[in-house]
UniProtKB/TrEMBL annotation:
Xref: Gene3D superfamilies: 1.20.1280.50
Annotated ranges, domain F-box: 21-72
Name of one Pfam family that matches: F-box
SMART domains, per the entry: FBD (SM00579)
UniProt source species: Aquilegia coerulea
Descriptive protein name: F-box domain-containing protein
Length: 478
């Protein structure tokens, strides 16, 4: 024993002489845990071979992060020795942390028999953050302890990748949950009541991404402290009788993408400040959408949402008195909108202060408008931002319309970064004529800039023109 100790001491001294002193292993355990936090669990386990001080360190670590890329590529072994399920079992069995901060699992396949035990074990160890992204082949019933968690679970993110169906109890209680993400899940109810309730008393963030509600008539979500809500529905399902009721009187930010396959009742949304809306194709749109954006201050609206609002005369039903900033998004490229439609919509937004067209002007017909049609129009509009500005007669007509209509307009920002086609003489069809192409592009940019400046000549509005035009060239065959 003494001989072995002497040999180990000499070996340690030799290693220190060659590689230097092992200062990292002598750091406090809390710092070593912090170092481990940057490693996936598979690599953290391997650190047990580094030195004596590292041998059992990972076992007391409070975070488990397993991302099985080998399984994702068709393999079923971890480090060539054991299956994923065996590895997760070993890690949970040997880990000695009574209070687990985080457990994250990403893999292509998971055995539900193991899965039940893992979830129950983690809940019993007061896990605070649970992130699951797995592929299950059949319907699955989560352990009830997950949906009635007491004071431990703060973050829950579940993604079943292939959209497996899971059964949940009629009453779900998340008393301490702050973040909840459901993705690719087909929910069904354990009982025949066909009504489920989520009670989340201190929830801050809720994402419902491409989920479906199977044979469930009513879904009640009560989240009085909810700040951020994102709903993205699947596009491949028809209209259903299910009703989604969300009570979120503290909601500040909403992102809603849907063709409204369900009846949505979004209650007490007067506090919403920022909203992204992309909904269309349903007779349910007018009531839902009008109520959502009535009190919004900053709104991003897709062109298909805009078209649906116009078709269903929502502008007649509602006046958006709180709206200050409006941004139009070009989601569906095959939909054309008219200048008259934009004017009709803006007429029910009396307090609008800024407009943004991040993907270019979506509306046509401004080149045909000679004079403003409304005397009390755009009384508060101060700034307009237009991206991808090709400088055709329609866009120039829109700028002219703004300058004549918006009496307090202070600034128009125009980005000339756009694609145009330029016709070159056959003689330019040779290498080395880059300068000729650049000259043509710059001349076109100069021409558009001069026309814009002439429009703003007798206005107090500041015109900021930026961007570099680029184009594709074609050649005469003559």
């Amino acid at each position: 024993m003494v001989v072995n100790s002497v040999q180990c001491f000499k070996k340690k001294k030799l290693i220190e002489k060659i590689y230097g002193e092992d200062r990292i292993s002598n750091l406090p355990e809390t710092i070593l845990h912090h170092i481990l936090s940057f490693l996936p669990t598979k690599d953290a386990v391997l650190t047990s071979a580094l030195a004596t001080s590292w041998r059992y360190l990972w076992k007391s670590y409070h975070s488990i992060d397993i991302c099985d890329w080998e399984s994702m590529n068709g393999g079923d072994k971890i480090n060539g020795k054991m299956s994923l399920s065996e590895f997760v079992n070993s890690v949970l069995l040997l880990n000695e942390a009574s209070n687990m901060i985080k457990f994250s699992l990403m893999c292509t396949e998971c055995d539900p028999d193991y899965f039940d035990n893992w979830i129950s074990t983690l809940i019993s160890r007061n896990v605070q953050e649970l992130v699951i992204s797995v592929v299950l082949k059949n319907r699955y019933v989560f352990p009830h302890c997950l949906f009635t968690s007491g004071g431990s679970l703060r973050i829950l993110k579940i993604d079943f990748v292939m959209g497996v169906s899971i059964k949940i109890p009629t009453s779900v209680l998340f008393s301490s949950l702050k973040v909840l993400h459901f993705k690719n899940i087909a929910f069904s109810c354990e009982e025949s009541m066909q009504e489920i309730s989520f009670s989340c008393s201190i929830l801050d963030e809720l994402f419902i991404y491409q989920c479906t509600w199977l044979d469930i008539k009513v879904v009640n979500i009560h989240a009085p402290t909810l700040q951020t809500l994102m709903i993205l529905d699947r596009w491949d399902i028809g209209l259903l009788d299910s009703e989604i009721k969300i009570n979120a009187e503290s909601l500040m930010s909403l992102r809603f993408t849907s063709h409204l396959p369900y009846k949505y009742s979004l209650c007490h949304l007067s506090s919403v400040v920022n909203a992204y809306i992309d909904v269309h194709g349903s007779q349910r749109v007018s009531t839902v959408l009008g109520r959502i954006i009535c009190n919004v201050k900053n709104l991003e609206l897709s062109n298909r949402s805009f078209e649906t609002l116009i078709d269903q005369d929502v502008s007649v039903m509602f006046t958006f008195t709180e709206l200050i900033h409006l941004s139009f998004l070009y989601i569906s490229k095959d939909r054309g909108l008219s200048a008259e439609q934009l004017i009709d919509m803006l007429s029910c937004m009396p307090m609008i202060q800024s407009l943004s067209f991040p993907e270019g002007l979506l509306f046509v017909g401004f080149d045909q408008i000679v004079s403003p049609t409304l005397e009390s129009f755009l009384l508060h509009l101060k700034s307009v931002d237009i991206q991808a500005f090709p400088g055709n007669e329609n866009e120039l007509g829109f700028v002219n319309f703004l300058l004549k209509t918006a009496r307090v307009l202070e600034k128009i920002t125009i980005d000339l970064t756009c694609r145009k086609r330029y016709r070159l003489d056959k003689r330019c069809h040779k290498w080395g004529h880059v300068n000729e192409k650049e000259r043509i592009v710059q001349e076109d940019k100069k021409r558009i800039t001069e026309r814009l400046q002439r429009l703003a000549k007798f206005s107090n509005c500041k015109m900021e023109i930026k961007g570099n035009m680029f184009g594709s060239f074609y050649y005469d065959s003559d």
